[in-house]
Amino acid sequence: MPGRPPVDPADALALLMSPAGRVDPYPTYERLRAHGPVVQAGPVFYVVTGYAEADAILRDARFGVMDDALRDQFMPGWRESPAVLSISRSMLRTNPPDHSRMRRLAAGAFTPRRIAAMRGVVEAQADALIDAMLAAGRGGAPVDFMAAFAYPLPVGVICALLGVPAADRPLFRRWATDLTGVLEPEITPDELAVADRGAAELRAYFSELVAARRRVPADDLTTALVQAHDADGERLSGDELLANLIVLLVAGFETTTNLLGNGLVALLGHPAAAAALREHPEFAPGHVDELLRYDSPVQLTSRMSTAPSRHGGVDLPPESWIIVMLGAANRDPGRFPEPARFDPWRPQVHPLSFGAGPHYCLGAALARLEAQVAFPLLLRRLPELALAGRPERRVRLTLRGFATLPVAPGREAVPVTVAGPPPGAAGPTP
């Protein structure tokens, strides 16, 4: 608060790791920001809250993700953990040239042309889920938006890309929730055991799917990666094959699920912005970028420095551990005036929610497409959509979202032809 001395960075971080701090991290980000855009919080531990500094570090070749040598130093015995092993052998937690090699093998499924071609599939799936929400909400019964829409839409899309049978899709929500605990900056032994259980289930599932694709190839990403492995194990090892299938699945829906839940709550709390999007779905790109900025589904990522550098007026020595607070950077007042205000008309938002640089999220365009389709469709078909109870946040910091989000769908709108924007109207800048 103004006039009060800033809280010590270590104390602020301790608060951020607490259950209350994880559920609402934004006040704590401001306590950290009071010390500057880059803050030293330990002997080799730094926290970044500034937008320009976060963007620069994520693009700086002197910073990478934690490699095996550093894991050996900071996490003895990590190879015995199925969760840590699964994440560490994927493109998510590897550096060039391994990262570049693996990313190229999967990138063909996420080209702009392929993403654009999926719009019809996303629209059809979203329409069907809204039909089911209307049926479940007849008579005023509340519907859990997370279970009824925010999870099944993106999981259906990524599973179609991977070639996962529709009947198996309900399995992944719990497994992924368990596994992603390992992405938190702090994890207890009990939480690690839960993450290991989820990883073991996912590895077993994808081992069977890989075997099935070897027997009967299909036109899907799993077959493409299996064939890359079988043709040349140097291009993709067996551990890398399973790890990347797991990460592609989990990352393919976790971020979008949280974006849909966080975004719906923001829109319902800002009826003028929701009305504009309902009437003019072509404004969706700007609305979605502001939703990503305002309440990011991914709040942080980490990097290790490999050479000396200076960012935000702070010297960062080699082997420093850097926590890049994406959610804080997205609310940097030096980059976004009145950052706590939801404003879909902001120009040139460019949120850091999907990262930046070499590890920029491979599926970012797909996640944006799903949200750009989903929100206008929900608002048009369900004009009375409203909260029907208190939403429950997941007690997570890295992946920010809701565990449950009760809504009342209300009555469906009478179908109308959506007109274009009135002369002179200006939408948000994509």
CATH superfamily heading: Cytochrome P450
Uncertain runs with pLDDT below 50, 5 residues or more?
416-430
- Average pLDDT, rounded to a whole number, is 92
Number of domain units: 1
Based on CA atoms alone, the radius of gyration comes out at 22 Å
Number of separate strands = 12
CATH architecture: Orthogonal Bundle
Helix fraction, binned, reads 40-55%
Cα distance spanning the termini: 34 Å
Strand content: 5-15%
The main sheet orders its strands as: 1-2-8-5-3
Instruction: Indicate the overall shape.
Output: globular
Structural commentary:
The protein is an alpha+beta fold and 430 residues long. It has one domain: Orthogonal Bundle (Cytochrome p450). It contains 19 helices and 12 strands. The protein has helices at residues 9-17, 19-23, 26-33, 51-59, 68-74, 82-88, 98-107, 112-117, 119-136, 145-150, 152-162, 172-179, 189-215, 221-231, 238-268, 271-279, 284-294, 326-329, 364-381; strands at residues 38-42, 45-48, 63-64, 143-144, 300-305, 309-311, 314-316, 321-325, 386-387, 392-393, 402-404, 406-408. A 5-stranded mixed sheet has the order 1-2-8-5-3, with helices on both faces. Strands 4-12-9 form a 3-stranded antiparallel sheet. It is globular, with a radius of gyration of 22 Å.
